[in-house]
Structures are given as C-alpha cells and as structure tokens.
Amino acid sequence: MTRGLRLAKTLGLHDGGRALRDFATYLPTQLVPAVAGFLVIPVLARKLAPTELGVLAICQTLVTLGWTVVASWLAAAILRELPAHRVTGDLAGFGSGLRRALIGAFGAFVAFGIAVLSIGIVSSAVHDNEWLILAATAGLALQNISISIFAASLRPRAYAIVDSTARIGGAALGVWLVFRGHKVEGYLGGLASASLLLGTIGLFVGWPKGGIGAHVPIRPWLRYGVPASAAAVATWLLAFVDRYILALLKDTGHVGVYSVSSVIGDRGVAIPVFAFFTATGPLLVTTYEKHGRVAAERLMTSYTRIALIIAAPCIAFIWVSANDLVWILTGEYDYARHANIAPVIAIGSFIFALGSIAATGLVLQKKTRPLFYGAVAAVAVNVSLNFALI
Q1: Which ranges constitute the DSSP H helices of the chain?
Q2: For position 384, what pLDDT does the model report?
Q3: What is the 3-state secondary structure (H, E, C) of 246-307?
Q4: How far apart are CA 236 and CA 24, in angstroms?
Q5: Alpha-carbon gap, residue 111 to 268, rounded angstroms
C-alpha cells in the first residue's frame, strides 16, 4: 500500500476517488474565475468610487436573484432527474421534459422582468441599468442550465469550458468597457454578452441526444425544483440582504466598501468547497439510485472530511491576511477600513457549506421543503440583526 493510500485510509478518504478526480477538473473552473475576480476587484475599486461600486453590487445581486427565480429550480431538477434518466436509459424522455420546463422558465423570466421595471420606478440605481440587468439575468440562467446538464452528465471538461469561458470572458470584457469609460453599464454589459453567448452554445451542445421521447410530466420536476428554488431565494436574502439594508439605512457608498471585503472573504472559502460539491452531487445521486442509502452515506462521510480539510487553510489565510490583501488590491479609495469583514464572511461561508452537506440526504430523497423552512428562519434572524446592528 502506498503512502497516499495509507494517508487516505487514515483520514477516511478512501471512498473519495472519483470525486477527487472530478474536483481536480472542476477546481480550475472555480479557481481561475476566482483569480480573475481578485484581479477585477482592484481594477473596479480603482476605477469606480465606492458609490459607483455600490450601485454595481446592487445590480449584480439583482442579476443573481433573477437567475435564481428564473432557472435555479430547473438547474436543481436537472441535477436530480438527468442521472436517474441516464440509469434507466431514457434520455429522450428527459429531453421532452426539459423542453417543457424551459417554457416555464421563460414565463418566470417575464414575471421577473416586470418586477425589475417596477423597482426601477423607485430606485435610480436599478432604473439606469434595468435592461442590462435583464440581459445578464437571461444569460446567467442559460449558462447555469447548460452547465447543470454537463455536471449531471458527468462531463466535467465541458462544464469547465463553458463556465470558465463565460465567467472570465464576461469579466474581461466588462473591465475593458470600464476602462473605456462606460462605468457600471460597461461591466454589466460585458457580463451579459458573455453569459448569453456561452449559455446558448452550452445548451445546444449539452442537450441530451435521444430523439423525441414520450411525454414526461414536469410536475415531479416542479415539486422538487420549486421548493429548492424557494430555498435558494431565501439563501439569496441571507447572503445579500445586508447590502440593501446598508443602502436603505446608509448609502450606496457603504455598500461598495462593504462589498469588496465581503467578496474576498466569501470567495476564498466558497470557491474550492463548492467546486468539490459540484463534483460530488451527481456521483451521490447515481450511487443512491444504483446502490441505495448505505452506499450514499458512506460516500457522504468521506466527502464531509474532504470538505473540512479544504476549508480550514482557506479560512486561516483570510484571517491573517485580510487587512493587507484589501489594502494592496484597492489602492486609492479607502476600502480597507472594513477589511475585518472578510474573515467573518469566510467563516459564514464555511458554515453555509456545512449546511449544504447536511442537506444532501434531503436532496437525494427529493424532500426540499425543509431547506426552504430553514432558510426562511435564517433570513428572519439575519434581517433582524442587520437592522439592529447597522
């Protein structure tokens, strides 16, 4: 037995083989855009005043909310349903259900568009950018649907190409437009263009090939996906409502300063941990379908240990380097005065990741309503404490 195998057995990681191999593929798709993000932050922080950066943060979080409302339910359903259809050899039936589900996603997009236009009546930050917000929302929805198909099909290389190209290309184009003097509109336009193009191409390439299948009711998809989407919306509130409360009680300048340290803390932990979960999700579903609960539980135990080993050094690095990191990156404007936010956010991201581990059993058994109830309770506490402490 080699040293590596002995170490893996000692740590209880001997069941993590395929997940670790896929993690090695998925990590660059998360790490490279993260590095690009760390490069984008100083550029934007040097070119945009805190107020402008605050407006951008509000618009970007609205885009995230948009794709969550429009398509996160479908992405969740794909990750659960496609592996099951692959096991039974019914890819044509899956494609039939996917067509009808996309029509439902389009209806949700129309409803979100009406909501954004309504918000623009009372918010100048949204009004000035509402069409770019909607374009970026559509692009991000297409991008996440397509990469969900790749992830559920166990095609990590295709996932990596589409996701990395869209994210890095969008950021690069957005930064170039900012340098050309287009400010917030330029960066949003870059993100929207890249995600629309790559999302459309990815959906075309990733579409399961199996002819025209029999009618597949999407009601089971909705029963599973909609509660998962509602939980994702509640999670969005948990992650981003603080920015809106800051804008309400203070101003968008405070949002800009806060967002820089928050992004550094969150990405430093979330990028590697959720890259690992992207690799493990379809494997767990497939194992559960083929071999049952006991085999899935054994894998989950090993995966939890790996997640802990990944997260611990990330938090330690952010804890000791936050002040210097923010100061070096941002330069001219005084963003570093709230650098102590970063390690707090990093710990919060890690706790959120542990919650995702705990929810795996619910996902496997298609019981997603408890995810929603837990997220709503957390949002209530979060909003109350934000209002009290700000």
Answers
A1: 3-11, 17-47, 50-88, 91-122, 124-127, 130-152, 156-177, 183-206, 219-249, 252-291, 293-330, 341-358, 360-364, 369-389
A2: 92
A3: HHHHCCHHHHHHHHHHHHHHHHHHHHHHHHHHHHHHHHHHHHHHHHCHHHHHHHHHHHHHHH
A4: 28
A5: 34
Token look-up 């287009």 returns: 182
Percent of the chain at pLDDT > 90 equals: 21
Distances (CA, A) of 163 to 33, 140, 167: 9, 10, 6
Q: Three-class SS of residue 128?
A: coil
- Tokens 């929207």 belong to 192
Q: Is the dihedral of CA 11, 16, 21, 27 positive or negative?
A: negative
- Name the band, by pLDDT with cuts 50, 70 and 90, for residue 185: very high
The contacts of residue 294 (CB under 8 Å, 6+ apart) are none
pLDDT in tens, 39-82: 676 678 778 888 888 899 899 899 999 999 999 989 888 887 88
Nearest to 65 by CA among 106, 7, 108, 19: 108
Instruction: Name the token pair of 321.
Output: 């380097």
For tokens 């943060």, the residue is 57
DSSP string, 13-64: -TT-HHHHHHHHHHHHHHHHHHHHHHHHHHHHHHHS-HHHHHHHHHHHHHHH
What is the tens place of the pLDDT at every residue in 298-353? 877 877 787 788 888 888 888 888 888 777 777 656 677 778 888 888 888 888 87
For residues 64 and 142, give the distance between their C-alpha atoms in angstroms, rounded to a whole number.
Answer: 13
Q: What is the pLDDT of residues 212-259, one digit of tens each?
A: 555 667 777 787 788 878 878 888 888 888 889 998 898 888 888 888
